Amino acid sequence: MYLVIRCPGCWTFNYVDRYQRWRLCPMCGEAINVERAPVYLEADDFLDAERVVAQLESYLHQTGKTDLTEQDIQQLRAQYAEWVKNRV
Predict the structure, then answer these.
(1) What residue numbers bound the domain in which 10 lies?
(2) What pTM value is reported for the model?
(3) Which end of the chain is more exposed for a tag (fewer CB within 10 A), N or C?
């Protein structure tokens, strides 16, 4: 299980193993405390997490938003759950 999080320094999306406590941001070098970082999604594997990170960055760039709303996050989680259910 992987967590899709966001760097508090540069706001870049990243992913970490759910048991990982710290993550070094590849963009700005910030040491991210995983316990304090906002979690957007729990993904089944790292490939799913990579795809979600890329899609989230693209979505924010296309819409001009700076962050996801709570409604956006709930929709993301529902879409991911549906995608996983249909994949199996």
Answers:
(1) 2-86
(2) 0.89
(3) C
pLDDT tens profile 22-40:
999 999 999 999 999 999 9
Total domains in the fold of the chain: 1
Q: What is the rounded distance in angstroms from the CA atom of residue 8 to the CA atom of residue 85? A: 32
- CA angle (43 as vertex; 55, 11 as ends), nearest 5: 50
Distance separating alpha carbons of residues 12 and 54, to the nearest angstrom: 10
Q: Are 24 and 31 in contact (CB under 8 A)?
A: yes
9 alpha carbon, distance to own chain's centre: 15
In whole angstroms, what is the distance from residue 45 CA to residue 65 CA? 27
